[in-house]
């Protein structure tokens, strides 16, 4: 709270010079920039502001039921244009309506005050840098490269000031999460530079013969791009919510594997990154790995929670869960090739897997990845009928079965990824599992074909 108070006080101090220079300011320009910043940012993010409500009314669409997503990225070209065209205090003022009326997570009032204060300080600092470099005069002349240099310096100042202020708040509120937040800020730098270029374009057009009209027209493609990006963000959020709902349903039914789905998704991503897969495929693989056992929803709960061995008939009833899973996600188009990963994640390289007995490269790549991730987490997780194996022991077992059960390439990728990034197995619940049987070796199964079995099998919760 002390940090928030200090930043807010600094922002108020920055705005104080407005009282002395008010008669000399171009208030119509300031007001129009503030309104554009508020409206265009709300349209890009889908925020529930007055401008967004008017926009939805014009399109004949109802307002969303839930609150706007507070994680959407800002839309700053108009704010940067104010930085380039206005004195520092006036540039800070442009940021206030959009921050005070924009989306914010609870506690909304404090977060909006924080957003307004830090944006006002960053805008004022970058406007001062631009003024010291003579940028306001250069915008009106022919020395455009020099103006671009001043604008670049102003944009970098804005990013630095904003990043330092946010990093300070993250350090105070999140502690160890600070470094992760700083990495996110660094990844946001290219977008900030793009928005800055848009702000320079708006400023140049505004100073031209057609004034604000040309500047607003120039903003249209940037606004459409930002809106499409926000739509994609909301779509990905909806996909994550769908996956999470299905996973929670599985874990309610099969309590002993709680957390297993997320860890398989995470291990699948480790393998995929080690293999150099494209980011869009990695995102799909993460969903598929997380949903690999969704077909257990169609398996009798008694079989999933059985601590003892299964008969041949019961084992066959469990082994159809990949088929059920594939049917459940058939209509989820965003899963793409991940649906085949769910269907075939229990196939074996030697053809002794299920449901279709595929061999070698006929097994889809996603399925070969998920198979290794699934077995690895199963071996390192504590279940009701045995304790988890140490990571190194599980790695040794995977390497032993590489080529017969698992794709050696995927095993090697997991081994290298775990060596580089580490792995934290699931800790047992306090007091252990009820009825836990100590030190029953899990192993990676090398089952005989079903006709040769004598009514015994692995426990349903094993790496089957």
From TrEMBL:
InterPro entries xrefs: Cyclic_di-GMP/3'3'-cGAMP_PDE (IPR052020), HD/PDEase_dom (IPR003607), HD_GYP_dom (IPR037522)
The keyword RNA-binding is annotated on this UniProt entry: no
Domain of life: Bacteria
CDD domains in UniProt: HDc (cd00077)
HD-GYP domain segment(s): 235-430
UniProtKB keywords: Hydrolase, Membrane, Transmembrane, Transmembrane helix
Signal peptide from the UniProt entry: none
Segments traversing the membrane: 75-101, 113-135, 147-167, 188-206
GO terms assigned for molecular function: hydrolase activity
Keyword Glycoprotein: no
Span list, region Disordered: 421-464
Protein name: Metal-dependent phosphohydrolase
